[in-house]
Amino acid sequence: MQLHALAIFLATAANVMAATNEPCIGSGGRAGVCLSTSSCSSAGGITIDGACSADPAGIKCCSKASCANGSAGNCRWQSDCGGTSVSGLCPGPAQMKCCSSAATGFGGYSAPAIPGVGACKAVAVNGAKALVAAWPGRVRQIYCTRDCACPGTSDHCCGKAIDFMCSDGGGVPTMSGRQLAEWAMNNRGTLNLKYVIWGQRIWSPSVDAVKAWTSWRTMEDRGDVTQNHWDHVHVSFN
């Protein structure tokens, strides 16, 4: 097992932290943000327990069901809004805004370029094609290789991993990756899946039973949206 993967597998609940101002699933399955209870309350939101793993006391998942941006106004990450977004009406960071639409709004991107077989191995190229075909419009960009010697510390070094960027930009949070990640899990055999990471959680067919993303193994807080995999789904292949 590569060192990068081993480090992931050894992450335990004792050192798992969900970063403040990063996504979570709030009350009623709504888009939420990990926030102090006082900040949530002052912005008109409500909190639930247990959705921001192992955070210090006072940090909980905050969501706000309605806000003043049309009759369907609701608080969600701007990247996931199918309508207009207005600032200053929702708890959390600037990218959590009041959306005018009740529609899901995920994606809507042009088909991403998929690398050819070469440095990016056939198993990864085929996996990228399969996921993009299954979820048209949901992946904005694809990355395969990284400038590092194989085997290195990542499956990207050997061209056997794909990052499926599924928000409006790098470092921009989204909730849309959950469906892509669970699809990879459910199609593990066809994909020759090694493991999949989304939203600070990891799933591997060699370790885990098939289950909802909310029950996947949690990972340590790596410090930002991208490293915690809130703007892309990482899929490694055998």
Automatic annotation (TrEMBL):
Cite the entry's keywords alphabetically: Signal
State the source organism's domain of life: Eukaryota
- The answer on whether this UniProt entry bears the keyword Signal reads yes
Signal peptide bounds: 1-18
Cite the ARB-07466-like C-terminal domain residue spans from the record.
118-230
InterPro entries named in the record: ARB_07466-like_C
Name of the protein in question: ARB-07466-like C-terminal domain-containing protein
